[in-house]
Design goal:
Length: 219
């Protein structure tokens, strides 16, 4: 059995943008206090041992909260740190291999950037889709062409699993993200690059609530 999860406010932590490893843990704590529901550790430069160390510190810091910890790319680190889940992209490893290695108790997220890939998601192995980039972003310079909000809506409708939107998103976009049918908004720089991550998280949480209220009025 996998843990239940809430994609609403998905923080992706980049230790370089946060200002180092201590600051990464402080940023996560402040963002979760401000309403973040999921936290991903994404450190493209780190060794597996560094990933495990940071993940363990994050896990300890988040232990008193409901937020779940997801590890980006590094399946060994996710397993060693006993994280709640792993996030992979299309180029990282086959979904079947990732699921086999992490077992049935960990959450598996998969990035999709085209309609074909969204429709092809295997809902037995994959728990959620990361759909992006919605907008161009300097945080991931090698990103695919932006989908825009219409593209997000198209892919979210095709995905057989819940989806979280990512790429160039700020608090102001939250209502449109929920209106497009995604179950959550994922952000990196909107939290990691701000001087006050707790205050920024509170503003995003309020925007998410507005987005959810508007979406429920429409349905
Ligand atoms: C929630 C979420 N969605 C998408 C991604 C991107 O994953 P990927 O395509 O593997 O790119 P990298 O992040 O590994 O550079 C993500 N990390 N999280
Ligand atoms: C990690 C990541 N994945 C993307 C994708 O499109 O799959 S875009 C992205 C970076 C998002 O950073 P920011 O919130 O600062 O724009
Ligand atoms: Mg990846």
């Amino acid at each position: 059995m996998r843990p239940s999860f809430d994609l609403s406010f998905y923080l992706v932590l980049d230790p370089a943008l946060c200002g180092g490893y201590e600051a990464t843990v402080r940023t996560a704590l402040a963002a979760v206090a401000g309403g973040a529901t999921m936290v991903q550790l994404r450190d493209k430069e780190a060794s597996t041992s560094r990933m495990v160390e940071t993940a363990q510190r994050l896990k300890a810091a988040l232990a008193g909260s409901a937020a779940l910890l997801i590890i980006n790319d590094d399946v060994e680190a996710a397993i060693a740190a006993k994280a709640d889940g792993l996030h992979i992209g299309q180029q990282d490893m086959p979904v079947a291999e990732a699921r086999r290695r992490i077992g049935e108790r960990m959450i598996l997220g998969l990035s999709v950037e085209t309609a074909e890939r969204a429709a092809a998601i295997d809902p037995v192995r994959v728990d959620y889709a990361g759909i992006g980039p919605v907008f161009a972003t300097p945080t991931k310079p090698d990103h695919q062409p932006p989908l825009g909000l219409d593209g997000l809506a198209r892919l979210a409708a095709l995905s057989p699993v819940p989806s979280v939107a990512i790429g160039g998103l700020k608090a102001i976009h939250a209502p449109a993200v929920f209106a497009a049918g995604a179950q959550g908004i994922a952000v990196v720089s909107a939290i990691c690059s701000t001087p006050d991550p707790g205050a920024a998280a509170e503003i995003i949480t309020q925007a998410i609530q507005r987005g959810k209220n508007l979406a429920s009025q429409r349905s």
